[in-house]
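Researcher: I'm preparing a figure for a lab meeting and need a structural model of a single chain. I don't have an experimental structure, so a prediction will have to do for now. The sequence is pasted below. Please return the structure as tokens so I can convert it later.
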Amino acid sequence: MRALLVFLVAVLTPSVALAHTGHGDASGLVHGFMHPIGGLDHILAMVAVGVFAFVLGGRALWMVPLAFVGMMVVGFGLGTTGVELPFVELGIALSSIVIGGAAALGRPMPVAGAMALVGVFAVFHGHAHGAEMPANASGFDYALGFVLATALLHAAGIGAAMGGARLAGRFGKGLAQVAGAVFAAGGLGVLVGWL
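Model: Understood. Here is the structure written out token by token.
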């Protein structure tokens, strides 16, 4: 986890330096990075993906978040090209409910099934990122920004679940399942307008 954080700081530091005017266009990267972390609906879903991956364990620990990121990029492509996708906001709100709920249940699931589950919802998130991209932003920089932010949120979910599991010992998976239920409840709160 420390190595991941050091790597991300090293990668993002040059971008922060370029955020000042006259030093090149970093607005795409910054806007892209801020989009997922600027909305509670995105945060809940993306951290829930990490918790869900932890609950499943094994190969799912990296394949489930990778599937989310990959399908989010597909959704981004749809959003930037103007392809209409119905119920985007509903899909985003339902993502934390369903993914958090799956983590809460803690039932074994084939990795491919878990990847498909998160991938469906990732398309909605990616579409929103693409449709809301600023007109003057570089598509590549913007996509790189939201991919980095999403990966960090997934890593936060995995890291928090691992840390909780260490503290809780044999109740670690149960604690992660409770966290999944909290994310599902948060998604419900967003859906009905309480949050």
